[in-house]
Design goal:
Layout: H1 5-15, E1 34-37, H2 41-56, E2 62-65, H3 68-76, E3 82-88, H4 92-100, E4 105-106, E5 112-122, H5 123-127, E6 146-148, H6 155-165, E7 175-177, H7 181-193, E8 200-204, H8 208-211, E9 214-216, E10 229-236, H9 240-243, H10 245-253, H11 258-268, H12 276-286, H13 290-294, H14 306-313
Parallel strand pairs: 1-2, 1-3, 6-7
Antiparallel strand pairs: 3-10, 4-10, 5-8, 5-9, 5-10
Helix pairs in contact: 2-11, 2-12, 2-14, 11-12
């Protein structure tokens, strides 16, 4: 891709190392790294972690909350630089036209390889026999004929509705209870507190996996694509990695685990409700070892070594 005059000028200056010992790795238009946050707590957590590191490197990250379709369009139109929230395979059909047109870049490998979303039950119900989708109908009475989902219009709720409409696994007489994430969790936690059986949509990463002793059902036979096992990928605007190679290197290095995200999300959803930036900074101060891999080959915006600069930013 051709360099504009400003970028070319900066590159030439950086090449004159004897005259300028420290120089920017990215052009001026890369200093503001624009993230899309699709509004889910896990993506809020990872975006906050990435933004905290970028701030320590001297960048100015900006986060815009946008739905999945709007975030895809923003990446295509170069109004957004990065999204850390492409859930595969649930969003695959939606993103395919963008990928085929090469207007969105999907980075490999995934930033989270071991995500999942499927129906779940408390461990005491699982241990008593409700272990697979084929078991659900047998426990209609214990479950009060209800399945607790999340917001109306989500792909997960659509999968549950499809099972009910088709009477798959004998679930035709069940009712889907749609609610917000918070509302669903209140219902589940109340049932667990009273040792009642409850069938609900679970997913990881999410602090529910720490707060509730729960198990995921298996054997969805395609009702949940890939039996609910998922991966989360980083997306960038089509020119971001070439236009902003240093910031792009950090973005490409980001790898999370379910435990990292569960922990930060638990803080975000706690009674104190800290700001995402504060929760991210607190986690990184307690777990600075994650920075070692994230910052391999990454410099500050003005060309210094990235790892010590970020540690200094965190007060380490």
């Amino acid at each position: 891709m051709p360099l504009d005059a400003k970028t070319l000028s900066a590159s030439l200056l950086c090449a004159a190392a004897l005259l300028q010992p420290v120089c920017a790795q990215d052009p001026d238009n890369c200093r503001k790294v624009r993230f899309a946050n699709i509004g889910w707590t896990d993506i809020t957590a990872t975006t906050a972690l990435a933004s905290t590191v970028l701030e320590g490197l001297g960048y100015q990250p900006i986060t815009t909350v946008a739905s999945v379709p709007i975030s895809f369009t923003g990446l295509k139109n170069r109004q957004i630089d990065v999204s850390l929230g492409y859930w595969w395979p649930g969003q695959e059909r939606m993103i395919t036209p963008f990928v085929e047109a090469k207007t969105i870049q999907v980075l490999e490998p995934p930033n989270l390889p071991n995500a999942r979303a499927s129906l779940a039950v408390p461990s005491y119900a699982y241990d008593a026999g409700l272990k697979t989708f084929s078991d659900i109908a047998r426990y209609h009475t214990e479950l009060d004929g209800k399945i607790y989902g999340i917001d109306s219009g989500t792909s997960a709720n659509a999968s549950i509705k499809a099972m009910i409409d088709k009477n798959q696994f004998g679930m035709g007489s069940f009712k889907l209870v749609e609610s917000s994430e918070a509302g669903m969790l209140v219902s589940v936690e109340r049932a667990v507190r009273d040792r009642k059986w409850v069938l609900f949509l679970g997913w990881e990463p999410h602090p529910m996996n720490i707060q509730i002793d729960m198990r995921y059902l298996t054997g969805s036979q395609g009702a949940f694509i890939n039996d609910g096992v998922a991966r989360v990928y980083t997306l960038t605007a089509p020119d971001f990695l070439t236009r902003c190679p240093n910031a792009g290197r950090l973005v490409g290095n980001l790898r999370f685990t379910a435990q990292i995200e569960n922990t930060v999300m638990q803080d975000l959803l706690s009674r104190d409700r800290p700001k995402p930036a504060d929760a991210a900074k607190a986690y990184l101060k307690k777990n600075p070892q994650v920075l070692d891999d994230w910052l391999v080959g990454v410099k500050t915006y003005d060309g210094r070594e990235g790892l010590p600069a970020v540690k200094a930013h965190l007060g380490l």
